[in-house]
Amino acid sequence: MIFDDLIVNMGVSLETYILLIIILGSIIFMAVDFRLGIIMMFILSSSFLLILQTFNRNITYYIYTIIISFILLTLSLIISNKKSGGGY
User: What's the predicted TM-score (pTM) here?
Assistant: First the structure.
């Protein structure tokens, strides 16, 4: 009950708390392997985007998170491709 009161009093929506949990979990995975963390953030954000869209909730932050994680994943693949000597 104390946590529920804290959520209500802060005025932060449930979508934002779920997104914060996804980002914190992804940061933990990024500490182990950067690509693994980005992939987890991409997958979890995409799945919660579909869930929240089904319930007609606010999905703006999830779209931003998906785009940012996709850009970071693409950059990490380009960097690793250049290190291995292939590609461009």
Answer: 0.77
